[in-house]
Amino acid sequence: MTVCATVSLISAAWLITLLATRQPLHVHWSIQVMLATLAICVSILVEHQRQNHWDKPFRAMHDLLQQIRLGEAPIDELSAIKGGHEPIIPTLKDILRELKQQKAATAELHDEIRQRVAHRTDALERMVGSLRQQATRDALTGLYNRRMLDQHLPQVLEKCRAEQLDLALLMTDIDHFKHLNDTLGHAAGDELLKAIGQIARSTIRSGDIAFRCGGDEFVILLVGCDLKTSMELSQRLMSLTEAFAKTLKVNPCPRLSVGMSLLSELPHATPEMLLQSADKALYDMKSVRKEKFASASRSRAVPA
After folding, report:
1. Is the separation of the CB atoms in 46 and 39 below 8 Å?
2. Catalytic residue check, 175
3. CA 278 to CA 221: how far, in whole Å?
4. Is the pTM above the cut of 0.85?
């Protein structure tokens, strides 16, 4: 029961008592007015106390909790809150500290998970890159492999036709390569193949592409390259390969044979036709060289 209600009941009781004792009416009304005034004063006082003891502390606590939630105020500032809510402040502080600790632990866990995911993603990307490298590159020379030649040649051919560019296709292999392997071993043959791969990369232009198609066979695509430039590049490849092969100290010395086909000479050629034309030119060059080598060997032979 509120104080105002209590005062009202007391006033009514006093009024009934006065009426029962037959006091003058003006006395009854005077007392009633006094009691009503007293009730109003008490009501104002109670409301003032309620505001100071409950409402203002509650609003202050509400605002402070918002600041704590945003990290703009420390939890211990709740101790400054006085009033009717003061008994729950220690429990509220404990709850907020536990929530803060849980939030920090959750953030730490999320950060650890992100790091693990990032590490595994990096490892996966490296693995995918390695697999892609293995799928498209020759492991020994680092050049593109035959699979990439089958994919790139049709695209390069169409591009050259669309842009009205010439295309030279060089096909090479190594003379006396088997003799090198039989004499010095396959390690020496691998060294020669790696050297040719390096020579090809350093000799061709940025837009050209070199492939190792297997064994001692290489294919080079020269985009927008005319006959004269293609011949000069072929001669450079052969001379650089021969210079390296001389360091292997084997006789006969390995050397590079090159066959070439030009899109300008086969305007309606398919990729297969370009490869076949270059292969035939390579075969012709090797045949001529083989005949010259045989003739030289016979001329050096001592009669029986």
Report:
1. no
2. no
3. 11
4. no
117-132: per-residue pLDDT in tens? 888 877 767 766 555 6
CATH superfamily to which 146-291 belongs: Reverse transcriptase/Diguanylate cyclase domain (3.30.70.270)
Query: Count of CB atoms within 10 A of residue 304's CB?
Result: 3
Q: What is the mean pLDDT of residues 97-103?
A: 86
Any idea what DSSP says for residue 301?
P
Catalytic residue among 175, 190, 216, 279: 216
Using the 8-state DSSP alphabet, how is residue 1 labeled? -
User: Where do the H-state alpha helices sit in 144-270?
Assistant: 146-162, 177-184, 186-203, 227-245
Tell me which DSSP letter residue 258 carries.
E
CA dist 127 and 123 (Å) reads: 6
pLDDT reported for residue 125: 73
Indicate the domain borders of the chain: 3-90, 146-291
Percent of the chain at pLDDT above 70?
A: 83
pLDDT, residue 304, reads 43
Which residues are 174's β-sheet partners?
256
Q: Does residue 254 have a cis bond before it (omega within 30 degrees)? A: no
Q: Which of the two residues, 297 and 271, has the higher pLDDT score?
A: 271
For the chain, first and last CA: distance in Å?
Answer: 143
